[in-house]
Amino acid sequence: MGVKTVDDGAAFEHPLYRTLLSVPGLTVATTALDQVLTWGMSNALWVFPMATSCCGIEFMATAASRVDIDRMGTIVRATPRQADVMVVAGTITVKMASRVKKLWDQMPEPKWCIAMGSCAISGDFYRNLYSVVPGVDTFLPVDVYVPGCPPSPEALMHGFLRLQEKIRKSRKGETVTPETNSELLRVTRPSIPRMVDHERTPEMDRAQIESADIATEVEVTPAVHASLAPEPTELASNISGPDLPAVLTELGIAATGELGPPLVPARRHLEVASRLKSRGYRQLVSVVATHWVPGTARKGKVPDEPEHFEVSYLLRTVGAGSRVATWAVRLAPGEPVASLFQLFAGADWQEREQYDLVGVMFADHPDLRRLMMPENYDRHPLRRDLPANLPYAPWR
Ligand code: SF4
């Protein structure tokens, strides 16, 4: 994708047009023919919906019966190869950006892009976040911006009308220059040049194409970690009694921690989970890890505790009169904790998420790899010592 400068209409030439022009005698009809082709092109916009978050709901409303963009000849197709217009409706993360870029490159020319909503336009209030692209015009040639948070369906409809106008003008050879709002451009200036910026270089285009290729072809190798789990025979199977305090007493575990859930030694945590499961706690509701560094202690705690992690677990019984049980383990940096996967299949994604975002290692997890961040991301973004506004070349 080269640098986009001025829309002179050349990029929108339909191949059929040239073929017809070469037929003897048809040149006299070029004006009428051109009008027919332009009419067809601007009234048959097939849309590829790149809807990632709340703006996507407004996009769906635009396609529904009240606004009904179908009346303009649009058809929403979930395939890039048969689409003319990509509508980016929602926040685009650095992980998603490479996929969006790949899908855009799979759309045939001529094609257009509508950035719907503040997130697609500039990253909005996520702009300074490590994981969010500060505007899709840093890697896509946006034709129409539809501002709002979210824009109403009528606003998107208006965006389509503006796009039709742009196509018509371009077909006539008229120059279509974007309406500039210099103050807005200054405020929303992204950390990398937009595709229309003078400082944009071909190297940046190439870097994004290569990044998209790598991201969409990555081979994933599950991480291998040491086993911390006790042998299956050590796991409890038939214990009676009410809830967590009884289980801890039975196991001879003196839980600590005055604030929050009881702290269980990490090496005994699998036994606790196993016994609770045998009492009917069959649903793993959540696994949540927190990173603590000196100076970030919670209310009522010593502010200068050494760096550590806390992973809290929540189980519940299933059915009427449901009860919950929650406990936590405290880990030193680098210390693993046993995965609950062998007890609760749902631990798979929940533990992967905590590994990805906080960096906690779950021993014996069958597939411990990143879930939200790109595979090649080298940090854990929810650690407290991570600066929020980090660059991530070539996307932000
Ligand atoms: S612009 Fe607003 S409504 Fe649209 S995706 Fe962003 S936060 Fe959601």
Structure description:
The protein has 396 residues and is α/β, with parallel strands linked by helices. The chain folds into two domains: 10-215, Rossmann fold (3-Layer(aba) Sandwich), CATH 3.40.50; 232-363, Beta Polymerase, domain 2 (2-Layer Sandwich). It is built from eleven helices and ten strands. It has helices at residues 15-21, 30-42, 54-63, 94-106, 118-122, 153-171, 182-187, 202-215, 244-250, 269-278, 347-358, and strands at 46-51, 75-76, 85-89, 112-116, 144-146, 283-292, 308-316, 324-331, 337-338, 362-363. Strands 2-1-3-4-5 form a five-stranded parallel β-sheet. It has a three-stranded antiparallel β-sheet with strand order 6-7-8. Strands 9-10 form a two-stranded parallel ribbon. It is elongated and about 95 Å long. The two termini are 18 Å apart. The model is unreliable at 1-9 and 229-241 (pLDDT under 50). Iron/sulfur cluster (SF4) is lined by residues 53-55, 90-91, 117-119, 124, 149-150.
